[in-house]
Protein 1
Amino acid sequence: MNRISVWMVGAGFLTFAAVLATAQDQPLWTDARCAPLELAKSGPFVQNEDGSLLTVDKNVLRSSTDGGRTWSEGGEIIDPGLNMVPNGHVGQFLRAKDGALVILFLDHTKYVFAWDDEKNAPKPECCLELWSIRSTDGGRTWSDKQRLLDGYNADFMGFIQLKGGRLVATVEHLMPELCRWVGCSFFSDDTGATWTRSNWIDLGGRGHHDGTLEPTLIEQNDGRLMMFIRTGLDHIWAAWSEDQGRYWRVLQPTDIEASSAPAWVARLRSGRLMMAWNPLHAEGGEVTRSTSRCTTESPASWYRAELCIAFSDDDAKTWTRPVVVARQPGKSLSYPYIFERAPGEIWLMTYFGAPHIAVRLNDADFTAGP
């Protein structure tokens, strides 16, 4: 959610700071199966039928015909409220089957985040609205700009088109009266001309990093939608919708251990699922939990020095053993993004913290099975 959390206080902070200073001397390590990816832009990307790429750079639509090495000058989409920069996911971009380009984004023209530490509650002036806009002519003109959520909203990871054509996005919303985040989905059956919101998904908690956070989603083979949710509860939680995102009535933890950081889940063209996320603790290490008065109600793991991936060949029932593909002690390798450039060729990036990772890998190099 792109805001600094208080990790340790008092004498404990001094110990943590000393460890961090030592850890920062260690270089970034990446798995040998991952090759460095040289790109002039870092997404989000959309691939056209001719293989060219599109990206939204702040509020400009740019294209590339050489695999992302160079990009066109492009043209401004709308006013500066659209500001998609590679520092967390402040918007999502999709090319529908009918060719329409649809963007969901957080409008920064009225951005205010203010938290009352005494009350452990958001202040009334908090504002970061969720909007959508679309183009039906390849990005030359844009229309149907509309607000989906007022109040304060933050990063979201899920935006897909279902097999039947419906667009579904999963988002998070700061609920002032609850003093925590709740989740929901928006769906559109006319490629973004109109939208409908689902019910709220609530996991409880209190604090500016507590609740139902930064969801992503997939469509399962049986037609159900599965949402993956960041929590501070040591696991990624999941919700299911039986009606393509109108209602979410099943909510439970998965077996995937994770720190309080978002995952990205994508269905590859082979049908295989891929997930990237930050594990609960260092590989071979112990879990460490902490909190501040206003971060989470209960202590949570904030570990982000490793990025791991896993695959599922049975529609998220089981996953391959998590593999750490990047590590740098003391750093934050977080907010992953997965883009399948060609069948089996995966571009894996991180957007928040430091350093930003950009690597290419082939999913066939990672064995199947749990």
Note: Helices lie at 11-23.
Protein 2
Amino acid sequence: MATLNVKNLPDTLYKKLKARAKSERRSVAQEVTVLLGAALAEPKKLSILDLEGLGKEIWKGVDAADYVARERDS
């Protein structure tokens, strides 16, 4: 496994990181690994059906890609 050294980390940032790690019952190194993993993870692809609010019921059962293709062809 690789080792990462961080230079010139501001004290205030380290204190926040340490407090967060403590609240999550992790070491500082484990917390950094979790935070970097989350920050660099592929974003979840959203579907029209995942959207909240107006229009959700209109799209239920509709394939968005087919709908867009039909709209473009018309």
Note: The chain has a mean pLDDT of 89.
Protein 3
Amino acid sequence: MADVTLDELRRRLGEQGLVLLDVRTRPEFEGLAGAHCDPRQGHIPGAVNLPLDRILECRSAAEVRELVGLAEGVEIVAYCHTGSRSGFAVQVLRGAGYEARNYEGSWHEWSRAAMD
């Protein structure tokens, strides 16, 4: 399954059945921390925060599903800062039975493009 592009994400934001999952730390999500290379801090509108370290604490697919708490049939788009953490999260989410894709450009790209 192909990664999500900036254009696709812009078109689909707010779409029913699409969950945007920010796997960065809570301070990154809230805009209290982040990379100095980004022109602004925060998160993509509508995203929910579930840090990767919490996902990795799970020992089974059932634990991942319990933590994520989403119904079957939703599509998850995960992002982080540069697509690395979210890429790993996508693999775990798929292993737990979710339809998950990575927004590889992640916050690094969004923080610039959203200013256009």
Note: The longest helix spans residues 84-95.
Protein 4
Amino acid sequence: MVDSGQLVMVERALQQLTKEWERFFAGVRSTPPTAERERLTRRLRMLSQEGTGGPAVQFRLEQLQGRFQSYSQMWERMLREREEGRTRQGYLARTAAPPAAESTPAPTEDAVRAANARAATTVDDGGVSALYERYVAAKREVGQASRVDRAAFAAQLEAQRRQLEGRLGGPVQFEVVVDGNKVKLAARRASRARQE
């Protein structure tokens, strides 16, 4: 019989797997964590065949399976796009928010207004740590947890910075923007005063 302790372990394994995929897509890890994903797939299959200890445990198991399926589809799509040479901007914003299977309560208008007031006035001038802190604080302000670690954030930000500077022909700055219940990074060309 499946118990809640086993589900907690599977949930932790899913969170760790998500971090490993983020590290891969950010360029920190060189190979995709397919072995870990297969292990979790087998584990979930085994749990579903064992039978559960009641409706609450069954419901939690089905939720975990749904989340895992949503993440798996997203990872497959992103792998395919990467192999085809199509780049995806805004990866951090997509992975920081949970898949559609999870419901996140909408933040209050005051929380969004407060987060935007702080974030919009603080445009990054190269301080990745400060930008990461603002990003995490804005996520917290709207009631969401950040699932991106500092190293993956820095790697992805640097990749986006190089790509945008090449396209725009000059330095870019990033700022944290809150749009409804979504927290994103927005890029813009650096002002002339900063370039000189």
Note: The chain has two domains: 4-88, 109-195.
